Amino acid sequence: MAERVNQTRRRRTSPLEYGAIAFVVLVCLAIAWQDANNLLRQRRDVWSDAGKDATNLSRSLARHASDILRTADASIIGVVRRLEFDGVDSARLEQLSRIMTLRLAMFPGLGDWAVTDDKGKCLIAGHPSPTADCAATYAANLDYHRQHPGDEAYLGKPFWNEAADSWILPFSHRFNRSDGSFGGIVVAGISLDYFQQFYDSFSIGERGAILLATRDGTLLVRRPHADRNVGRDLHNSTFFREYVAKSAAGYAETVSATDGVTRLNSYSPVEGYPLIVSVALASDEVLAPWREEAETRVVRTGILIVVIGLLGFGLARYIRRHQRLENAYHEATEAFRLLAENSSDLIVKMGAHGKREYVSPAVRSLLGYEPEELLGRSTGEIVYPPDRAIWEEAFGPAADDSGADVQATYRVLRKNGTPIWIEVNRRSLPRNEGYVIVTRDVTRRKQAEDQLTEANRQLEDLAHRDGLTGLANRRHFDEVLNAEFARARREGTVLSLIMIDVDCFKLFNDRYGHPGGDHCLQEIAGVLAKLPGRPGDLVARYGGEEMVIILPNTAPPGALNVAERAREAVRGLAMPHEGNAPKIVTISLGVASAVPGVGIATPEQLVDAADGALYAAKKTGRDRACQADLAIAAPATAEDD
């Protein structure tokens, strides 16, 4: 009996041993929970970033498609006006044929063009052939314009044009006879191969897709390309039925009706036309890097948990053998050190005095130091100087010391002087015993983020440029004018605006053709872009042959001086213009200067004032600059140039 009691006593687990077991279990659970939580957060971040990338790309491609269609629209509108004004005699048709042939060569998005009479007979065509049958080819366009006497454009169904060797999307306008009856149509054949080649240039993964389609579900262009997909009806697909039909733009994860691949699909409308552009990233490819890292981390965490479990088992046996608190504490400390020394992340124990008390061996591979070299020193000594402010804000003397966890990303210098990006997580220890700092190398991730930021910046820059002249476009002009108007109102400074119009430009186009007109605008834009010399000045294309210059903090004499320099610079080009009195290309300019809130209250009023001054310059003889009579109450510091 006494022997059984002694055995029971020997097998009884002490509270300290229970505590050690519970500690190991909690540590394992905490590590597993934290790793799982981090993986889920990273997956959400990857998914969110992919959605933003797809959305940004779809918006940019939608703007690109809108610009192509607007250019084609402007081209055929000009032909329609000439046909309605001059008629369809052979001489006029021959002249239009030459003009449109030049445009066909200059504009890569234009694959074909044609002019038909009211019966569908081809009067002229970009790729004529003995078998050309405009009535059959453009039947849908002809039927539409016969039934719709308005001036709206119409997009037909895509077809294969053997002469152009390309899939063509017919884009048409109606023209009328002098009595107002239906005279025929002018068709611009949009080259779908041009869009196909453009979409193929983007790197969106092996199974990523880009789609251009009508809003009613007719597929026009798809990357990757297959001829059988052109013209395919997708209106009953989940993507069109559940998303496009209900919202003009958005994104969702869908299964492709074309190839069955699950993709993150972002779509945007093409402004002004019944089309959408969709960018779809294959879900498997988006998450592939995350899955690789997740598998590695799961294996690593599993090994770590096994190691912890084994160490915990050994610790429990040690406690059971010795039953002494100090020995148990010593074993636990050694176990923690072993865990830290087997981690690929750098783990540092920092005392309340701000000096390192423990540095894990991972410092050798991360920073090139031996652990002993960094003991007793401050963590701020190896911070890369340009990132010193980031470190000070997070960990410096003035940082929040409430005991909350702190995370920061900045650069440090390795022992050989090479800077690397690191992510630092600091957690406070209980009883004010200092901190545990975990550091990992995130240089590759940072480089990838920087590359993505630069790509987005380039896309944004393309969205702000006019495709013909290279100047800022109307959208960017409106944004900058509103911003500078608000700034000038806050600071009480003068804001000047110059409106510019090419004199007799319609006569120039009539005489030298639209390609010549395009070249003229490009030359003028080139000299105007060189005039302003300050970072805040902006030269933009306002529309057609009109251009504008924004001059912040510039008084009326300085603005008029810039206008005169612009006028002389254009005269200096000496471009021939027989339809203009000086026989060369000239410009008229209207200048308006004001302090926002003094005489004018909105940017539109400043534009109206400059436009009125431009009208005065036109009315008094052209080739001159006139200044609007606005009240100016500007400070003496306003610049004169």
Describe the structure.
By secondary structure, the chain is an alpha+beta fold. The chain folds into three domains: 39-296, PAS domain (Beta-Lactamase); 358-443, PAS domain (Beta-Lactamase, 2-Layer Sandwich), CATH 3.30.450; 464-627, Alpha-Beta Plaits. Helices cover 47% and strands 21% of the residues. It is built from 17 helices and 21 strands. The chain has helices at 2-11, 15-86, 90-106, 134-137, 139-147, 192-200, 238-244, 283-322, 325-341, 363-367, 371-374, 388-395, 443-463, 474-491, 505-529, 556-573, 603-619; strands at residues 110-117, 122-125, 154-155, 159-161, 166-176, 182-191, 209-214, 219-223, 250-255, 262-269, 275-282, 346-350, 356-359, 406-413, 419-428, 435-441, 495-502, 538-543, 546-552, 587-594, 625-627. The strands form four sheets. Strands 1, 2, 3, 4, 5 and 6 form a six-stranded antiparallel beta sheet that branches. Strands 8-7-11-10-9 form a five-stranded antiparallel beta sheet. Helix 2 (15-86) packs antiparallel against helix 8 (283-322) and helix 15 packs across helix 16. It is flat, with a radius of gyration of 36 Å.
